[in-house]
Amino acid sequence: MQAIKLVVVGDGAVGKSCLLIAYTTNAFPGEYVPTVFDNYSANVMIDGKPFNLGLWDTAGQEDYDRLRPLSYPQTDVFLICFSIVSRASFENIRAKWYPEILHHAPNIPIVLVGTKNDLRGHHDLKRPEVSAAEANNLVRELGFSGYVETSALLQTNLRELFSLAIRTATSPKSASAKKKGGFFSSSSSSSSSSSSKSSEKSVPIPPVMPPAGKAPWIDIITSSYDKEMRETLNSESFSDVKFTFFEERPVYAHRVILCSASEFFRRVFGYTLSSDQAEFKLDDLNEGKVKNIRSVTIKPNEKNDDGTKSSGEFVEISIDSSINRRVFNRFIEFLYTGVLNYLDKNDQLQETIALAESVGFKYLASACKNVLGGNEDLNPSIGTFLNDQLGETSKELFFTKKILSDIQFIVEGRSIFAHKALIFSRSNVVNALIGRNFIEREGKVEMSDDVTFDSFMAILEYLYTAHAPIEEGDSVGILVLGNRFDLRRLVSLCELYISKEIERATTIGIFRSELDIIGLLICAQRHNAPQLEKFCLHFISSNYQPMRRRKEFALLDDKTKKHIEDNQWPPIHYLRAVEDYEKEMEKLKSSSKGWFKK
Asked: What is the pTM of this model?
């Protein structure tokens, strides 16, 4: 089986690793960590002949300009990659990549590759695209073997690309060109004259680069929004609604949550969206004209039972005697959590369907029908959708608004209205913040001076919706405040986002990057972000040479420095071997009578 060495080069973040992973695994990688250097292998059949294809991935950052060419000897074909939505990566082919290959590995065939074809035509990206015509013109200008436009995500043209690369590497024209290549010609030139063979035996072999290892995986903590909402319902804290039944215990709830979850209750309480039907009239509610409701009583109420400030009113709703308390409570639980609570198929599910249909809440009816039809595995997706919908509607109706507000936060001298029922149960810190400790402040909580308005608003939005505007805001500030409020899932979301920011900020270079990665490591250590800490430690260790030259490196404590030095990549023994190799090459150049001249 003939072995083919294929080396992939190009700017950082153009999709080189995704291209190789998608080709060798037939799947797009769900997570991507920038490559330092990596190798892949595939056995393929081309034109009825078997080939072992060695795929060499390289780092595009300028920090590795010295080490990258050590992957070039014995290469049979190069792929130079650019992203079709990054004109800078295309322009670097002529400015950087072609000259680098021409210098270190002349006469080796090159195939030009356009990546991320699936993004072509996405006008919302607002990035200048590179046309196929421009790419083909460059192929003709520089004498490349061809151009293929690909999408690793959609598997577009991947097989065509690597088939072309193998045919190019094994073509008679390519073999003839390689024989002219000198010391860095490919392994395919081993059939040249005996004098060439003896000369090539004296050429030093580059040291084998040890693997850098993969970056640690950052896990996102699973949302517990439904469990937190159930805890809020069961605690009955801050409730301003009481549903009463004939000779049965009442059910307590919260108007802000009921309105966020159900159009029926928005019409009952008079807080409708523009897409809703008109609100019910109070007279109709008290005269039995609204199905399932016998009467509604509204009483002024300044304080909750625990002495904290209330939403201003307490509403008592008498439920029609035809409605079973268990069925109605199941309905309320479903509004809060999106989870259908039942014992078995005989647990009054038909009655629950009837109630759901009478109030126009189709999702509860669907969940019950799924159980009766043996399709209960579909219900978690309904719950996830309802949790998201509740959060989004609560944001639209109530976020930072005075309507039904029962607490105010004072941040940087500005007052923010909030609703305790929508932020309760998220963490013990939050619960303590809005509880009895602040009775004397009349429902006002003043945050400390180190809390910024924008970061607090992001935290508050997360409390309402389980989503936070991390991309638009200060991700580090949100992480710090999220840790203070003990919102561990939010911290994990920030950790993942910041890790991606590190990748984006270092696509061109690491030493010259404007992002302070060492500062992020120190922040992660101080603010209980262990996943980000591990990621930063791995990144700094794996890019030790450029990172140690940054002035922030001196800020690291001795323990952290020792860990980084002990895990540095490339390791010291490899760098020493590189120095020895370079010395041997210099000796060979000086004694080879012009063999290294172009």
From this structure: 0.77
User: Known binder of ligand: residue 36?
Assistant: no
Domain ranges of the chain: 2-170, 224-389, 489-590
**Which range among 48-62, 156-170, 262-276, 468-482 shows the weakest confidence by mean pLDDT?**
48-62
pLDDT tens for residues 389-440?
999 999 999 999 999 999 999 999 999 999 999 999 988 898 888 875 554 4
Asked whether residue 115 is marked as a ligand-binding residue, the answer is yes
188 annotated as a binding-site residue: no
The second-level CATH assignment, the architecture, of 224-389 is: 2-Layer Sandwich (3.30)
Nearest to 233, CA basis, from 425, 63, 494 = 425
Check the annotation: does 14 bind a ligand.
yes
The reply, when asked if residue 116 is annotated as ligand binding, is yes
Q: Residue 46, SS3?
A: strand
| Cα angle: 86, vertex 92, 93; to 5 degrees | 105
Is 214 marked as a binding-site residue? no
Copy the structure tokens of residue 423. 């932020």
Cα dihedral 229, 230, 231, 235 in deg (nearest 10): 110
Establish whether 8 is an annotated binding residue.
no
Beta bridge mates, 309:
303
**11 known member of a binding site:** yes
What is the spatial distance between Cα 17 and Cα 33, in angstroms, rounded to a whole number? 9
Is 57 marked within a binding site? yes
Is 118 marked within a binding site?
yes
* Statement: 2-170 belongs to CATH 3.40.250.10: no
Known binding residue 16? Answer is: yes
pLDDT at 185: 52
Q: Is 360 annotated as a binding residue?
A: no
- pLDDT given at position 438: 52
Asked whether residue 337 is marked as a ligand-binding residue, the answer is: no
Higher pLDDT, 524 or 32: 524
Does the annotation flag 261 for ligand binding? no
pLDDT for 128-145, tens place per residue? 899 999 999 999 999 999
Domains 2-170 and 224-389 share a fold: no
